[in-house]
Amino acid sequence: MDPARFTRVDDTTWRIEPYGAMRVPAIVYADEDLIRDMDDKVYEQATNVAMLPGIVQASYAMPDAHWGYGFPIGGVAAFDPDKGGVVSAGGVGFDISCGVRTMLTGLKVSDVLPVQNSLADSLSRQIPAGVGSKGTITLDAIDMEAMLAGGAQWAIERGWGDARDLERIEEQGRMVGAKPECVSDRAKERQRREMGTLGSGNHYLEVQAVAEIFDAKVAEAFGLKQDDVVVTIHCGSRGLGHQIGTEFLKEMVMTAEASGIALPDRELACAPINSEVGQRYLGAMRAAINCALANREILGHYARRVFEHFFPDHDLRLLFDVSHNTCKVEPHVVSGTRRDLFVHRKGATRAFGPGHESLPEVLRAVGQPVLIGGSMGTGSYILVGEASGEQKAFSSACHGAGRAMSRHAALKQWSGRKIMDDLAAQGILIRSPSTRGVAEEAPGAYKDVDAVVIAAEHAGLARRVARLRPLICIKG
Amino acid sequence: MSQAAAPVANTARWEHFPHDADVGVRGFGATLAEAFEHAAEALTAVVTHAAVEPKMAIDVRCEASDLELLFVEWLNAIIYEMAVRSMLFSRFAVRIEDTRLKGILWGEPVDVERHAPACEPKGATYTALKVAAGSNGIWSAACIVDV
């Protein structure tokens, strides 16, 4: 995008003043190079979101923003139900509650290196990943309802998790307000054999090393030290979320028209929060959040079993589990008044600052861990939410490096086999059923994750705590 | 693991086109139905470049308020069958009457070794959605698929 199209507020704040049907401004947080590298579609999509009814304050895009569906990926928008605000299936996305969890192992890099190869092989055997992979869990109708209502709490009750995790999962592991009866039979059918599967695309399980500490005090509170080994899982609500997204997108296109909502793009399909469709979507979407929370808890359990085999004296403790594709009701202060808003984060991570009431006591003083997935080669970050993020973007930050190149272009440029060999030479072991999938996820196809998190820090959204480098990556 | 060459287009029938995060599928055909069939081949090519044997037939039906929405319904019907049956499809037959579609999908169960599936389509989107006949009379049907 041409930076000249924006009003530059400061080095990392770029504003589009309202024009045409925009109800509020659009604000992109990024440095100038990231802005230049962003597709013009981000400008168009952030602008379109600003046209939706009931939007509050501004339509935001995070430093890793890229061309999405209706909303940009990296988009944040809050809606007020009392002002005709809407909920948008496109604003949440197909992979409802896709997110990241990071678990502490209590191990050092030197503990893991001697078994790195066999650990990688064992994880790739135990973690069902990719198309055609088979999970070991099949849900009957009763289990399905219980899972959709119970989330990670359900998984733990069934023996696939650790009750100590709950306080470190968003919503304490169970999203309130889930309505399994609002989830279609087709969506349930798509999920019947998918619990405890990783999926494919950019989803992964990584064993990572703490490569750099930026904030020693917060790192200590998070339990992170130089050369510590952690396990990070990135995945979502699998087929169930995809099907719910698909079905409600279709329904909302029709009902938006009937409600008199002019959609600048059909993908922005939405319904008034206070409407039958809006409420039904929220019930189904919250059930999908529970599905994602349960799924990550189960995958965490599988990772624990593998680590237990290799390191019987260590247990994996959850640092945090946070989603980046959701719509959540949250109180936010707007123009001096505290209001309950429906905050959509599409490829954006919730990032509560220190003192936030929803954080567990052990983290409250320092703020929420914000888990940022990078690419296979370049590593990931752990940030901490900043109090200033509340005013900046309803306490939201980036979610990953963000793609810089399409899969199509990546496939033309790289060979998966060569990427795996090059990364192995750097001490990073990749295990994937598909070398083509690896090529599509090539490190070079992503933006510079360092630039993205530095921009998030400069913008006051979240602050760097630690950088992680991959040791093992299991990809679907 | 197979390292398939990268056919990103079967020029006469279908092509993939780029999107930042995902992939676009576009089918061409002498008729609307043929464009839908060829776009379905492009959808399979998102997942695998390996041969898929047409061993089993699955019937699907869909309906929408216009042809573009019908195209998304068609791709989503295939994605659903791929997901719940853990199958890949290689041959397609489509009949369209007004905005109602009857389709047959021929394929086989996913064989991870042989098909080396690269990624899993989550859903067809309304982004870059276009169904139209060109001035040369050739139909095309396209949209972005979230993977």
Layout of helices and strands:
The complex is a heterodimer of chains A (476) and B (147).
Chain A: E1 7-10, E2 13-16, E3 26-29, H1 32-37, H2 40-49, E4 55-69, E5 71-79, E6 86-88, H3 89-92, E7 99-108, H4 109-112, H5 116-126, H6 141-157, H7 185-191, E8 204-213, H8 216-222, E9 228-235, H9 238-258, E10 270-272, H10 276-310, E11 317-323, E12 325-334, E13 337-346, E14 349-350, H11 361-364, E15 369-372, E16 380-385, H12 389-393, E17 396-397, H13 407-413, H14 416-425, E18 429-431, H15 435-440, H16 449-458, E19 462-475
Parallel strand pairs in A: 3-4, 18-19
Antiparallel strand pairs in A: 1-2, 2-3, 4-5, 5-13, 6-10, 7-9, 7-11, 8-9, 8-19, 12-13, 14-17, 15-16, 16-19
Helix pairs in contact in A: 5-10, 6-10, 7-9, 9-10
Chain B: E1 9-10, E2 14-18, E3 23-29, H1 32-47, E4 56-63, H2 67-85, E5 87-97, E6 100-109, H3 112-115, E7 123-124, E8 130-133, E9 139-146
Antiparallel strand pairs in B: 1-2, 2-3, 3-9, 4-6, 5-6, 7-9, 8-9
Helix pairs in contact in B: 1-2
- Report the CATH superfamily of chain B: Archease domain
Which parts of chain A are unreliable, with pLDDT below 50 for 5 consecutive residues or more?
A: none
Q: What general outline of chain A do the C-alpha atoms trace? A: globular
Give the strand tally of chain A.
Answer: 19
Q: Would you give an account of this structure?
A:
The complex is a heterodimer of chains A (476) and B (147). Chain A contains 16 helices and 19 strands. Chain A has 476 residues and is an alpha+beta fold. Chain A has one domain (3-404, 446-475): tRNA-splicing ligase RtcB. With 147 residues, chain B is of the alpha+beta class. Chain B has helices at 32-47, 67-85, 112-115; strands spanning 9-10, 14-18, 23-29, 56-63, 87-97, 100-109, 123-124, 130-133, 139-146. In chain B, the strands form two sheets. In chain B, strands 1, 2, 3, 7, 8 and 9 form a six-stranded antiparallel beta sheet that branches. Chain B has a three-stranded antiparallel beta sheet with strand order 4-6-5, covered by helices on one side. Mean pLDDT of chain B is 91; it is low at 1-6. Classes of the chains: A alpha+beta (476), B alpha+beta (147). The interface between A and B is large, with 53 and 47 residues.
